[in-house]
Amino acid sequence: MSDATPTPFGTFDTAGPAASRADVLPEPVAAALAAWPTGAGPVDAVLLVDSDPDKADTAVFCETYDVRPEVSANCVVVAAKRGQEVTLAACVVLATTKLDVNRAVRKRLGARKASFAPMDDAVAATRMEYGGITPVGLPAEWPLLIDARVTATPHVLVGSGARRGKLILPGAALAALPNAEVITDLAV
């Protein structure tokens, strides 16, 4: 990873194109970058920044690396239930907002009940680390719900699939990911 790659925000010791760092990314994330969708823009616009895994939680990360919370996004795994059927989905919202699980998510997924997926289920299903789950490289069948404010952000910080490191990419690129649906007011 090149120390010289500039980032649109933050203060990082190392940053560079994420696609060239498959050796440090979880397999599903590396595979998604290798098969980057054409409509998402150039894959080299997706940067991997190195960070301390003990500082992965959003508030601590933002303070430590001089990142404004309004450019940081969280990827949350939800479990939507209708009868005995459970659908896992991912939702991406800015760190300055709160995911509207009980109204927006439940309604969009046609569920009677929606809640945050248990940590062990989210980790096993995504093959990513808790605290680093990213919309890049999610299971192919999952719905990916993205708050419109995320895609309107010129560059956004998301997890890398691991607690060490984060991805910075154009917010609009997330809308081109498989099964992505941009929703106004997914968050409050």
From TrEMBL:
Instruction: Name the Pfam families for this protein.
Output: tRNA_edit
Q: Which domain of life is it from?
A: Bacteria
Q: Domain YbaK/aminoacyl-tRNA synthetase-associated spans what residues? A: 53-175
| Name of this protein | YbaK/aminoacyl-tRNA synthetase-associated domain-containing protein
